[in-house]
Amino acid sequence: MKLFILVALFGLCLAQHNPHIQHGRTSIVHLFEWRWADITAECERFLGPNGFGGVQISPPNEHIVLNSPWRPWWQRYQPVGYNLCSRSGNENELRDMITRCNNVGVNIYVDAVINHMCGAGAGEGTHSSCGSWFSAGRKDFPSVPFTQSDFNDHKCRTGSGEIENYGDANQVRDCRLVSLLDLALEKDYVRDKVADFMNKLIDMGVAGFRVDACKHMWPGDLSAVYGRLHNLNTEWFSGGSRPFIFQEVIDLGGESITSTEYFHLGRVTEFKYGAKLGTIFRKWNGEKLSYTKNWGEGWGFMPNDNALVFVDNHDNQRGHGAGGAAIATFWDSRLHKMAVGFMLAHPYGVTRVMSSFRWNRHIVNGKDQNDWEGPPSHGDGSTKSVPINADQTCGDGWVCEHRWRQIKNMVIFRNVVNGQPHSNWWDNQSNQVAFGRGNRGFIVFNNDDWDLDVTLNTGMPGGTYCDVISGQKEGSGCSGKQIHVGGDGRAHFKISNRDEDPFVAIHADSKL
Ligand code: QV4
Ligand code: CA
């Protein structure tokens, strides 16, 4: 009996680690600040057809609206309530998006901001995305409703009421994160309200949640909230499916709170991944690509089954959160493509691709003066839709890294090699490396300052393959380099360090 309970509990926990991605797909894309109507269109015209498994959406619930600074992106991390109208659109548009994305096999994961409401200094009035009245000063949010006693202030032991010392777990969980009004998740009432909000989304058809600021919530409180969640909607998911949970915990070491505390609840964001990978591709601190032979757990990252990995995210691409200048973003597009290519080729973790908007980056003494700038918008502050150019790129300031040929093709590569082991490793003891995924795919990088010219065992069946980085298969032809794999699995690779993208990737479906 005891064993049965243990097994059942184990099963229940692991369930929230499963992203329930459909049709053998493997990757999630964060369409940061996109409108619901644009995501709907993107699911149908691009994500579904190109093998993307899911979208992380910006917070869908009601948030403050700020005029100074003018409509910053981070206003959406200051909830006013759980009505489903936001800068991205209203509830009908949200529902339509979830339905239509699900119908083309693309899951929706919601960014859930449940640690706090808005900042203590956010004022009083109806400057909110659905127009609900609230008072930050009186901690009054009638649309939920939350009142004074639903917040943690009595529990926080710092003089300022703010988190002052990340070495003290009590402060980190019970005090205010950058003045954000901290919810008392120990109360059943608060847990119920938060779970109602998440359940409404689950019933609408979402596949799970990126849970914001988990470091600032007690694992026991989160467990109580997750335990209240419904199973996924059986219109799209098999009966008994638990929502996928991936928790934002920034753990680079050296603090009182570790990611380990959250492993049993769901997956956790592995922030070491992007920080290290950026350092490696930049060749900082004596790092070399050849050191990635044991990439993953061998580098002290969390266990594979717990990890949600990414090269950059909406915070650290602009200096918020963690990782600093090492992070490889679209601003360094050549590095970014290589790093994302490496991540998508490597078996470790559930992968998330970033899709950004451009802003007027202006770094003074290491700090971006415009790190607050919101998405491309009209004069009235409403978000612009995403126009698609003739060459399939996006216009109007939307970067759309996920549409870049190299990245899109590596998302497909990951699907094709899914389940295959990391194999046939080669390196030159510097920054040229190659590895395969069983007999389904092979990738070669040259991040040295000289040419790569080598014959390698790919593990692939003989034939001619189209490199999906310099081009792709177009009908029966190939718009990029062609790689000839002999009957013995060996192939010759030549990559100049001056190539536009100094890496080559082939897979079973790119065979000509
Ligand atoms: C400021 C001061 C405070 C002061 C306050 C006075 O910084 O010290 O007390 O004014 O009113 C914004 C402003 C910030 C301001 C705050 C409250 O940037 O200057 O406080 O609002 O008005 C995003 C942004 C934050 C933003 C927040 C809320 O990154 O800058 O704060 O949204 O709008 C830690 C956490 C981790 C977190 C990461 C950024 O452990 O959980 O920092 N990451 C997540 C999200 C992130 C989001 C939050 C958490 C909060 O990914 O995008 O913060 O929901 O590492
Ligand atoms: Ca808290």
Mean pLDDT: 96
> Could you name the ranges where pLDDT drops below 50 across 5 or more consecutive residues?
3-12
Which band does the percent of strand residues land in?
15-25%
* Global morphology: globular
Biggest beta-sheet profile: 8 strands, parallel, barrel
From the alpha-carbon coordinates, what is the Rg to the nearest angstrom?
A: 23 Å
Q: Bound small molecules, which ones?
A: ligand QV4, calcium ion
State the separation between the terminal residues, measured CA to CA.
56 Å
Helical content class: 10-25%
Q: Reading side by side through the largest sheet, how are the strands ordered?
A: 1-2-3-8-9-10-11-12
Number of strands: 24
Class of secondary structure makeup: alpha/beta
Question: What count of helical segments does DSSP give?
Answer: 9
Written account of the structure:
The protein is α/β, with parallel strands linked by helices and 512 residues long. 21% of the residues lie in helices and 19% in strands. The chain has an eight-stranded parallel barrel, surrounded by five helices. A four-stranded antiparallel beta sheet has the order 15-16-17-24, covered by helices on one side. A two-stranded antiparallel sheet has the order 4-7. The longest helix is centred in the middle third of the chain and has 17 residues. The radius of gyration is 23 Å and the shape is globular. The N terminus is likely disordered.
Task: Draw up the topology in text.
Layout: H1 2-15, E1 27-31, H2 36-47, E2 54-57, H3 91-103, E3 107-112, E4 116-119, E5 124-125, E6 134-135, H4 169-174, E7 180-182, H5 188-204, E8 208-211, H6 219-227, E9 244-247, E10 267-269, H7 271-282, E11 307-309, H8 333-345, E12 350-355, E13 363-364, E14 367-368, H9 405-416, E15 422-427, E16 432-437, E17 441-446, E18 452-457, E19 463-466, E20 473-474, E21 477-478, E22 482-485, E23 490-495, E24 503-507
Helix pairs in contact: 2-3, 5-6, 7-8, 8-9
The structure holds ligand QV4 and calcium ion (CA).
